[in-house]
């Protein structure tokens, strides 16, 4: 399927690896120009080189730019918009806050979580949505978490901050921008085979005294698909939400978890 987005330009956050990189890769394969942003300069540069190699084999040879910056800061956002001013597609993404016991989280921990996982996406939406509406096309995809639908007790910081973003998007996606070709959706990953998941399982193994492979097997057993997802298939879902064909989908929370969420709605 031709997604009809060749020649568009996307800002993809947290794209040096994992799900963000998976999204950037899928967009490049559709002929989309990408500006990828992440804090780690060396890893980001390697990701940009990989994407440039992919772009070389795509009709039109979309450009790949990378900006080593902290997108949660005003300076980081300014750097992203200095690389390209008018984005047609924005994929917001930030590493989740650390797990823990809510009794141990002070105000600073909460502010940091809300700033990264709620306020930063809102700032990026605010900076781009009117320009998208004026041009008659725009796609914003926020990478959140399956914990928005099925909260995880030790991820309270993430549960709270991402749920705040979810509520905001539910309202703003249904304003006048919807009639001007702009959609805003949230993409909720379950367990994907990323460094973050591996780190979480290593921590669980250490705490429980189990072997990491035993922890991995137990986690996979709880997923109807019987496996973890791949960044590539996550990216494919993101690319579809950015497509012309997805123009009638807005304000939605798209769960990609291999069937792990047990609810009907």
TrEMBL record:
EC numbers: 1.1.1.100
Protein known as: 3-oxoacyl-[acyl-carrier protein] reductase
Species per Swiss-Prot/TrEMBL record: Variovorax ginsengisoli
Single annotated GO MF: 3-oxoacyl-[acyl-carrier-protein] reductase (NADPH) activity
Family, similarity comment: Belongs to the short-chain dehydrogenases/reductases (SDR) family.
Enzyme category, top tier: oxidoreductase
Highest taxon above the source species: Bacteria
UniProt xrefs under InterPro entries: NAD(P)-bd_dom_sf, SDR, SDR_fam
Signal peptide residue numbers: none
Keyword Nucleotide-binding: no
Taxonomy of the source species: Bacteria, Pseudomonadati, Pseudomonadota, Betaproteobacteria, Burkholderiales
Pfam families xrefs: adh_short_C2
Alphabetical UniProt keywords: Oxidoreductase
